[in-house]
Write a structure and sequence with these properties.
Shape: globular
Bound molecules: nicotinamide-adenine-dinucleotide
Distance between the termini: 38 Å
CATH architecture of the largest domain: Up-down Bundle
Number of domains: 2
Oligomer: single chain
Amino acid sequence: MKPFIYNAMPGRVVFGSGVLSAIADEARGQGCKRVLVLSTAGRRAMGEAAVQCLGDLSVGLFDGAAMHTPVEVTERAMQVMRETGADGVVSIGGGSAVGLSKAIAARTNVPQIVVVTTYAGSEATPILGETREGVKTTRRGPEILPEVIVYDVDLTLDLPLEISLPSGINAMAHAVEGLYAVDANPPISLLAEEGLRAMASALPRIKVDPRDVEARSDALYGAWACSAVMGSVSLGLHHKLCHTLGGTLGLPHAQTHAVMLPYVTAFNATVAPEAMARIARALGVRDAAVGLHDLARSLEAPQSLQEIGARKEGLERVADLVVATPYPNPRPIERGLISDLLVDAYWGRASFRSV
Ligand code: NAD
């Protein structure tokens, strides 16, 4: 066995049906006496439910969280933190609510309890991406990692299919990259394979019946495993491409992941055979990239960058940026190859497809 370093991340996971009701005990367990609830405007009703569950511990609801964690929003939330004397936060919603929670913790070190309702996977990572004047920067730190993650499957039953399915593939991307990361290690590979297996089995069942509690539970469990992988090891070409496509061409986060994942997996296939074997085994298929492509297609997730609003003339700029500051990747990143990969993904031209 190759030598490795494994960094275990601290954190407590509360998982089940109806476990939103546990947040008051969890907040007390973290020593909190005055808790501010955070949500996006769209999830305000869930935020109000969290306020109810917290009872006397709640000092209110801030519902201004937004995609990509704009610093102006964080500053407004910080003002509310000061006015209310809050000593902890409960976020409820997807990656946008978790992002605001992390941004507040990065500034105050208050404990965070994050109630997660999508599969985006920010909750088990010590990573915060913030946007200032349209530029997104990323930082890491132990204070950014949430103390408690609450997964209440009931809150996910109404997550629309057009969010659920790409969001699930977004989670799988974390596990795929974890398997061939420069700092990949056996415990994390085990978790990555388990996350892929759970998610690949859950998503087709969710497509058939979005209110299937068992399928929704498997997807949330898979989302946790994939998030924990991303929190422990480095990200590679796939995440670099998706972050750059999102930032440069304004493409939607989860859908971009769904389009790109089979292409980047095929790109890395020849140099990461062990990772490919694990992905294929988790999906129950012979070829990792083909399996991911077929899964995305069967879920009717977007198949091309064109379909999700990319401008073809923007692709060369994306290739420049990816090559200028690459993430570590098992296959060397060459400008011409990245440009070809982006053009193929733009047209949905998967040369590795099965049929
Ligand atoms: P999101 O939180 O904006 O949610 C997407 C949409 O789903 C929103 O319209 C929201 O209202 C809706 N929604 C959420 N839960 C719902 C539910 N249960 N029922 C119905 N609708 C629901 O976005 P996201 O896709 O969850 O997360 C993306 C964000 O997370 C991005 O900003 C991304 O950069 C960040 N992210 C960060 C990390 C990290 O480690 N820092 C990791 C992954 C993602």
